[in-house]
Every structure is written in structure tokens, then in C-alpha cells.
Specification:
Helix content is 72%, strand content 6%. With 428 residues, it is mostly helical. The two termini are 26 Å apart.
Length: 428
């Protein structure tokens, strides 16, 4: 395995344009990490760190920003506004006929939708930056040292510009580098937290924690293997094509497979579920000190309910499971797939074209989505379960982070291999 890795690395640097792509990608990721450590003025860093250690919602967001939020840096919001804009545009494309028709126009239509996504990112970044500032101002600790209108507006504009910068850097990687730029930025953000977590663990390590650390490492390896296995899992539906008479010749025929991934939804259901789960606690914290007794009592009850670990885990799993089915039902429409197969002369053996094919695909999709939803639900609640098993709080087996990292690494490796294969054909 090591020999193959060294051979691949040698082949990569053998081709100048491929080498340039990889070096450009590395350079842009280094620039991103430098910007993540450029702080904004007007912040009490000690109070900010204390507030983050007490707030689960901010801790989860900070994980995907690579510490940019806890550093209160110029790229504090990371690429989350761009991701939210992409999800919104994806759902709107499926719901609005004009956008759906535009998406089917080919590259020109997709470029137009990409431009709309960039436009939508700007107001979302501006609104989210204000939401973050408003959240920090709710803290009992004085975090913002200057809360004048001019200072807050300057912070919001700077953070929005930082998001636009990261969006541009991500698209630059996608166009002239290797891999998906935005996904790589998120991956680097997640991986950047590992050295600090290891340092914190070693600082408090003793012999009594050895067993917990060993269990944590074993579970980490098993989780990565499990994620790779299910993330790459595909249910291939055999499709045959009828032979057609074109002129004086018979054309077509043969067969292929219609791949249906077990994890069709990716990490989007987890993001949706996490937002829904943390939202009640966040809102209730604003009304705990309300003057109306029943409002304050209701807010306190909601806070205690969502702090109950059993209730939290159960609701988290149920929401992820439900959102997985919802998202797959939006992105995978059996009727459309059946119509496309019929137009191309394809059919599933033993299944009549049309409604029967659509029903069969829906049946298969429901079965594999059940497995995928269970898998995502388990990944979502995994960090809390592992912490209870091992007793280690300085290291977190974050299933969401591992899922993103594994998916991005596998996709980047595929792109590198594809580039190498193309170069070998060009030389031949």
C-alpha cells in the first residue's frame, strides 16, 4: 500500500499541470487557514471562550468553521451562508418549474443558477452575521466591548466580505485546482481541530484514562470503516435497452445498471435535524427571564427537557431519520426516472414500463433509504454515546465531521486518479 502511494505521488509530480493544480489547492487552503486567525476588533476573547464552552449550538457551528467563530475572525461565518444558499436553490429548483427548466438547459442553465446562489449568499451572510452578534450579546458575560451601531455594522460587513472571499477561493479550487473547493475548505476546518484536541487529551492523560482512550481509538477506526462501506454502498438496478431499427441497421441493445446510493442524502438531513433540535433551546433561553410567569416557566421546562440526554438522543435520531426520507423524496422522483428510461428505450426486466417501473423504483428507494436513514441517525448520536462509554471529553468522535471528511477525501482521490488516467492516455 505504501509503495502504491509513493508511486502515485511520483506520477502526480511528473505532470506539470497536475502538479500546479495540487500546489494551487494547497496554497489556497493555507491562505484560508491564515485568514481564520485574523481576529476582528472589539471582542473579549476570554469571555468568548467561556461562552463557547457552555453553548452546544455554538460549539457545533464552530466545529465546521475550524475555530473561526471562537477566534472571532474575519471569516467567522465560514462557507455556511454559501452552503445554505446552495441548499435553498437546490430545493427551489425542484419546486419552481422555471428554475427546473433552467437546470435542464445544460451548462448555461447551471451557470445561471450558480450565479443566483452567489447573489443569495450575500444577504444570508449579512443576516447570519447579525444573528451571531445578537446571540453573543445575549450572554451574561461581556463579550463585545464596543456595541455601537458603527462597530456592529463594520463587523457585519467584514464578516460578509470574508464569506464572499471564501466562496471565491472555493470556486477557484474547483475550477483550477483539485477537488470541490467548498468541501475541501470544510474538511480542512474539521481537521484543524484535531491537534488542539490531542494536546488537551495528552495534558490530562494518566493511566486511569488508558482504557477509555483505547476504546475511543478502536471505535474511531471502526466508524471510519463503517462510513466508507455505507457511503460507497450502491444498489445497482439492472436496466436493458431495446434494439431499434435506424435506417437499415439495428442499433442499441445491451444493458447497464441504474445506481442507487444507500446514502443519497449526504449530511443534509443531519444539518436540518441539528438546526431544528437546537432552535427550541436557543429561543427558550431568550425567555427564561420573562416577566410573565407562565412564559418563563414554559421556557425553563423546554430548556430542561432538551438538556435531558435520553430525550435529546431520541429526538435527534428521529429527526435525522425523518429528514432523510423527506430529502430523498425531493431529490429522487421515481416517475421522472421511469419516464427517462422509457424515452431512451430502457426497461427493467420483469417490470412493465411506466407506472409499474416507477412503483418498483420507489419500493427499492424506500428500502435503501431506510438503511441510509438509520445509518445517518446512528452517526448523528455517535459522539454522545462514545463520550459516555469512554469518559473522554477532550476528544470527540464527531460522526458528522468524519462523514464529511471521508466523502471529500474519497472524491478528491477519485479526481486525482482520473487526472492521472487522462494523462496516461494522452501520453499513449
Amino acid at each position: 500500500m505504501l509503495a502504491n502511494a509513493l508511486k502515485t505521488l511520483t506520477q502526480i509530480f511528473k505532470y506539470p499541470d497536475l502538479r500546479t493544480r495540487i500546489l494551487l489547492t494547497i496554497l489556497i487552503l493555507v491562505i484560508y487557514r491564515l485568514t481564520a486567525h485574523i481576529p476582528l476588533p472589539g471582542i473579549n476573547t476570554d469571555n468568548l471562550a467561556a461562552y463557547f464552552s457552555q453553548n452546544q449550538f455554538l460549539g457545533m457551528i464552530d466545529l465546521f468553521s475550524g475555530g473561526s467563530i471562537s477566534n472571532f475572525s474575519i471569516v467567522m461565518m465560514g462557507v455556511s451562508p454559501y452552503i445554505n444558499a446552495s441548499i435553498i436553490m437546490q430545493l427551489m429548483t425542484m419546486a419552481i418549474p422555471s428554475l427546473e427548466a433552467m437546470n435542464k438547459e445544460g451548462d448555461s442553465g447551471r451557470r445561471t443558477i450558480a450565479r443566483y446562489t452567489r447573489y443569495l449568499t450575500v444577504p444570508l451572510a449579512f443576516i447570519q452575521s447579525y444573528g451571531m452578534i445578537a446571540l453573543l450579546r445575549q450572554s451574561e458575560l461581556p463579550i463585545l466591548t464596543d456595541i455601537s451601531l458603527y462597530s456592529i455594522l463594520a463587523i457585519m460587513l467584514t464578516v460578509t466580505a470574508g464569506t464572499i472571499l471564501l466562496m471565491w477561493l472555493g470556486e477557484l479550487i474547483t475550477e483550477k485546482g483539485i477537488g470541490n473547493g467548498v468541501s475541501l475548505i470544510i474538511t480542512i476546518s474539521i481537521l484543524s481541530r484535531i491537534p488542539a484536541s490531542i494536546g488537551d487529551t495528552l495534558a490530562i492523560f494518566d493511566n486511569s484514562r488508558a482504557l477509555g482512550l483505547a476504546i475511543f481509538l478502536i471505535l474511531t477506526v471502526l466508524t471510519i470503516v463503517f462510513i466508507i462501506y455505507l457511503n460507497e454502498g450502491v444498489r445497482n438496478v439492472p436496466v436493458s435497452y431495446a434494439r431499434r431499427l435506424r435506417g437499415n441497421r439495428l442499433a442499441g441493445g445491451g444493458g447497464t445498471n441504474l445506481p442507487m446510493k444507500i446514502n443519497q442524502a449526504g449530511v443534509i438531513p443531519i444539518i436540518f435535524a441539528l438546526s431544528m433540535l437546537l432552535f427550541p433551546g436557543l429561543i427558550s433561553s431568550l425567555f427564561v427571564n420573562a416577566t410573565t410567569p407562565w412564559v418563563a416557566s414554559a421556557a425553563e421546562f423546554i430548556q430542561k427537557l432538551f438538556q435531558n440526554e435520553t430525550f435529546y438522543l431520541l429526538m435527534y435520531f428521529i429527526l435525522v431519520f425523518a429528514f432523510t426520507f423527506f430529502y430523498v423524496s425531493v431529490v429522487f422522483v421515481p416517475e421522472n426516472v421511469s419516464d427517462n428510461l422509457q424515452k431512451q428505450g430502457g426497461f427493467i426486466q420483469g417490470i412493465r414500463p411506466g407506472i409499474s417501473t416507477a412503483n418498483f423504483l420507489r419500493f427499492v428507494s424506500t428500502r435503501i433509504t431506510f438503511a441510509g436513514a438509520s445509518f445517518l441517525g446512528l452517526i448523528a448520536i455517535l459522539p454522545i454515546i462514545v463520550q459516555n462509554l469512554t469518559g473522554i471529553t477532550t476528544l470527540s468522535l464527531n460522526g458528522i465531521g468524519l462523514l464529511i471528511v471521508v466523502a471529500v477525501v474519497l472524491e478528491t482521490i477519485r479526481q486525482v486518479q482520473t487526472q492521472l488516467l487522462m494523462k496516461q492516455y494522452e501520453v499513449a
